[in-house]
Each structure stands twice: as structure tokens, then as C-alpha cells.
Amino acid sequence: MEDCLAKKMEITVSEAEKRTGRNAMNIQETYTAYLIETRAVESQSEGQCGPVESLWRRYSEFELLRNYLSVTYPHIVVPPLPEKRADFVWHKLSADNMDPDFVERRRIGLENFLLRVASHPILCQDKIFYAFLMQEGGWKEMVNETGFQLKADSRLKALNATFRVKNPDKRFTELKHYSDELQSVISHLLRVRARVADRLYGVYKVHGNYGRVFSEWSAIEKEMGDGLQSAGHHMDVYAASIDDILEEEEHYADQLKEYLFYAEALRAVCRKHELMQYDLEMAAQDLTSKKQQCEELATGTVRTFSLKGMTSKLFGQETPEQREAKIKVLEEQIQEGEEQLKSKNLEGRDFVKSAWADIERFKEQKNHDLKEALISYAVMQISMCKKGIQVWTNAKECFSKM
Amino acid sequence: DTSLAEVNSFSPISPSSMINQYKFEDGPELRDLFITVDDPESHITAIETFITYRVVTKTTRGEFDSSEYEVRRRYQDFLWLKSKLEEAHPTLIIPPLPEKFIMKGMVERFSDEFIETRRKALHKFLNRIADHPTLTFNEDFKIFLTAQAWELSSHKKQGPGLLSRMGQTVRAVASSVRGAIKNRPEMFTEMNNYMETFSQKINLLDKIAHRIYKEEREYFNEMKEYGPIHTLWSASEEDVAESLKGVASCIDRCCRATEKRMAGLSEHLLPILHEYVLYCEILMGVLKRRDQIQGELDSKVDALANKKTEKDLFSEEIGKLEDKVERANNALKADWDRWKQNMQWDMRSTFTNVAENNLHYYEE
Hints:
Chain B: One of its GO terms (molecular function) is phosphatidylinositol binding. Chain A starts with a helix and ends with a helix. The mean pLDDT of chain A is 82. By secondary structure, chain A is mainly alpha-helical. Chain A has helices at residues 5-8, 59-72, 100-119, 127-134, 139-145, 148-151, 154-157, 170-218, 225-299, 307-315, 320-400; strands at residues 9-22, 28-41, 49-58. Helices cover 69% and strands 8% of the residues of chain B. Chain B is built from ten helices and three strands; from the N terminus they run ααβββαααααααα. In chain B, helix 7 (162-178) packs across helix 9, helix 8 packs antiparallel against helix 9 and helix 9 (241-303) runs antiparallel to helix 10.
């Protein structure tokens, strides 16, 4: 693997803090700031670390960074940020952005984002990214100076608008379908998982009622008393265990969510390619029509119906001088157009090449990560079952002693 | 009562030996009466539709003319049997019958589920009577098990019936008005208190168990949807497809395991809890009747202060009845404890099984 920033530097998002301040409209607001800590690491020698540098950033700055990266590297599948608002919550989880659990999970997500960018062979070399990590003041101005917002194609914002591309690249079309499917299947999965978690929570918690009633009941029993009491205790343990279990599962859900958002990033690359292709085709079409016009003027034949042709017929032909001038202008435009087309074609080919390289890289990463996530999910389930076995074995013992 | 001598390995008078004498479910070797209730059949007449159940009895007892009987009985017949037993043994604990209809839940009178639940409860009812050292020799019980339908009807029409029952009720009301709690032995007061708390707790447990069943059902419903999503996803993947399919199949097995768990609950725990909820009422009734009898004793003692011999006779009778209650209670307590164990054991085994299955399934 190429030498990337992640290997040379330790990056962590270590803390989160509530802040109040005045925003652009001079209104008081509360937000959370995150502490980014970095430390240079010598790859060869252990224990040789540079000093820890740190600075604070808030979520909106992360968003700015990501937007910049998306626009500047349109052929790269840019790692996604953790969700802006809590989604796919089951009833016990809070949907509040200020909730400490949400903030904590977001902190982890932001750290993950930075690590992903730092491990990307191309993205990690970006100077703005480096400055994001190292330079607290003046970073926003630096980003804006790059003028990336001008490059951002407003047409991309209309994500679902279709451009009629005559010769779509089959691979990209397939990829776009895949990203749509991935998005829909993961969001469905997350929704059902949230409902399953809710129900499981219910099952466990009602068992806690057993604990209370057993304990009260044991008070009036002689022989059964001890057994009931201790069994009740185990029921309480059982009911309490679900909280930890589900918290762990949230991390699994977050891993899936990352790929939900990655699917969007993948789709964006496909869209950019589509747009490029469209521009190319439009440019080619424009060039062809200009060439045609030129030919018509030069030879004086009107092959196709045109308003100009009609008006000249009605109001008389133009003078040869006028015609010459027009031809000259057209010839210049045609030359420009041909150069543009050439460069666009080149651009297009470069785009496809580098995009496809990154897509392959992404696919590998995705397969690896998903497999790992599924394995860790299975491990979680096993551990949950082991706990269940333990509790019920204990309970069984207590019951048998009644 | 030959069983007494056989089982009695402790000193004859200690309370523990008394409890031992009334050990139920001694195992098939010591039982001599086997009853099953099955094969519900629906009968349609001009007036009504009703269900009969087949009652099969196998026995080695001398007093039975044959060793095998097969009769058909309907719910009404069971009701009749129960009331005859209560009449004959007012202070013994007669096992509960399943209710006439279920109030909550949309269970139709003749739905399969309802019929099956009832059948199981009726089966239990008869077996509990068979296991009871006194009730098992009751004449009406024998007739119930052996008589053909027309024989049973004609027998039902005989007997003291309505009038005597009315008399009993009158006496009951009278004595309760008199407040028969005066000389109640400590033991029965304790029992009353116990029953109050126990009834509370068992009702709560019944509700909790139903709630758990409901939650598990909802969980199961969601899980049913969860598995197929993974299969769907695996269709668009190549590399990860196998893992996804693996997870999908595990989730499906979890679903089946959950179904088993629910079945365990509904087959074992829920019916037993319900039975004991019904028992609470029965027991309160028994205690009341005991109080009534005591009341009679007390009033007779007061009234017949001069006629010493007669008084002795009466008090002897009534004392015997009290003893009966005492023994019945003890016996039932012992029975309860063991039943609780069994019940819990069943339930917990089911759960442990589920957990173990989960483990195996997830080791993918």
C-alpha cells in the first residue's frame, strides 16, 4: 500500500465539548466541538513519537472539508461523515443531537472519517486536509480561497434529475444501480434491526418484573423462599443485561450506516461521470452543428430549414462581407470547440481510469469491512446467548432447589 | 386404606409422615387408575351444538367391573362431577375446571386452540382427582368414568340435588353472618393470610407471563422480516454474499427457536399459572367452608352444653372434618411445591434449550 498519512501520523478525535457562541446571524447557539489530536509517528522506530498537537473543530467544519474533497476529487469515492441527525432509532435511544450517547457515537464516527481520509492514497496528500488537522486559525478562509464552490456543479444537487446520455458507460450504469440497491437494502435492514432491538428490549425487561414478584412471594414461602429469592435475582440480572447488549449492537448499526452513506458517495461519482459524458455529448453536438452552419454559409446551400435561411429569403441575402465575417467567427468557434472536445475527451478518459481504480479499491475495502462487521455481529450474538445460558442455568438451579 | 402401611416408613404420628401418606404421582408402579381425555368431537342437534371428549380409563382396581372404559363426556358433565364432589367433601380441595369461556382475547367458543386448551385442562382435572387419596374413591367419580351416556343422565337426576345444596348455602350464609372466625386455630388464620398474598402474587405472575408471551410474539414477527433482508442483499453482492446468506439462515433458525420457546411457555407455564390462579379461589372457598363448619361446631358446643354425650358425638364429627381439611391442605402444599418445581424446571429447560440452540446456530 502506498505511503499514506495514516501510517505517518496518529490521529484521534479524543473529546467532545459543549460550547455556546454566536453564529453568522449573531444568534446565540449551542454546539459541540470535537478535539482532534495528532502525533507524528516514526514508522521504523518504536517509542519515537513527536509531540501531541491538537485543535478543536465542529461538525460544520467537517462538512466543509468533505464538500471540498468531493468537488476537488470528483472521481474518488469520498468517505462519508457520520449522520447529521440520529436516524433509525429504537424507542430507548434518543434522537437528540445533544444526547451524550449520540455525541459519543458521533465522535467515534468523526475519528473514523479522518482515518479513512488519511488512509486514502490520494486524499491523504491534500494540503487542505492536512491544514484541517494541523492549523486551527484561518482554515476556513483557506478553503474558500480555493474557490471550490465555483467548481461545484449545481446540477449535481438535483440528484434525481436525469440527463439523457446517448452512449452511457455500461459499467457506470451498473454501478449506479448497485449503489441504489445497496442504499435501499441497508436502510431497510437498519429499520428492521431497530424494531427487533425494541422488541428484544421488551422481552428482557418484562422478565425484570419476575424478579420483583418472586422476591415478594418468597416472603410468604418457607421451603421455596430461598430458591425464589435467588431466582428472582437472576431475573433481574437478565433484564439488566439487555442494555449493554444493545449498546454494542449500536456500533454494528453504525458500521452499516457508514456503508449506507458510502453508497451515496459511490452514486455521486457515477453521477459526475454521467454529467461529464453529457457535457461531452453536448459539446460534440454543438461542434457538429457549428460545422454544418459553416459549411452552409460557405457553399450557400441551405440543407436544413433554419430561421436565418427564412429571414434571408424574405429580407434578402447578406452581403458577401457579412458572410465572410460570420464564417470567420464560426471557424474560430469550431477550432475552439475542437480543442475543447479533445480536452474533454481526455478528461473523460482520465476520469474513468482514476475513478475505476478508486472504485476497485473501494470494493475491496467494502467487502473486507462488511465481512468483519458481520463477523463481529455474530460474535455479539454468541456472547449474548452465552450470557443467556448462564443466567438461565443459574435460574434453573435456583428453581430446582425450591 | 392399604397404601398407608406401605408408604409409611417414618414414625406413624409425625406430620411429615402424614404428608408422605398423601404423596401424589408416586410413579406408575403405585398408580392403579389411568385416565386420558382426548378426541374432541362436535355434535350438532336441533337445539344446540356442543363438543364431547373421549374419556378413557384403565384400572386394576377391584371395585371396577372391568379394566378398561371408554366414554364420551361433555363440559356440562364435568361441571356436574365437580359440584357432586364439592357437595360430598366440602372441605377438601377439589381441583379447578377450565372456565366456561375466555373473556379476553378473540377466542371463539369452538376454535381449535380453545378446544385443545380445554381438553388439556379437563385431562388434568380428572387426573388430579384420581391422584387424591380420598376423592379417587368417590362414587360419583366412578360413575363419571364408567357409565354410558344414558346411564349417567339417569343417575344425575337422582340424589339429593337441589334442595340439599340450597340447605347448605343457607347454612353457609347464616354462619358467615355469625362470624365464625372466633375460635379459628392459628394454622388456618395463617393459611388465610398466606392465600391472600399468594393469590396476589400468582395473579401478577400470570399477567407477567402473558406479557412475556406477547412480547416474544412481536419479537418473532419482526425477526421474520429480518432474515430475508440479508438474503435479498446477498443477491447484489459477490464477495460478501456467502456471509450474508449465512447470517440470514442463522436468523431464521433463531426464529424457529423463538417459536419453540413460545410453545414452551404456552404449553407449560401459562396453563399451570392459570390453574393456580383458579386454585386460589377454590382454596379461599375451602377455608371459608372450614370456618363454617367450625362455626357449627362452636354453636353446637354452646347450644348443647348439657347433653354431653350428644355434644361429644357432634364435636367428634366436626373435629374429624377439621382434620380432613388440615390434611388436605398439607397435602396440597406438598403437591404445590413439587408442582412448582416441575413447572419451573420445564420452563427453564425450554429457555436453556433456546439459548443453547442460539449458540449453536450462531457459531457460523
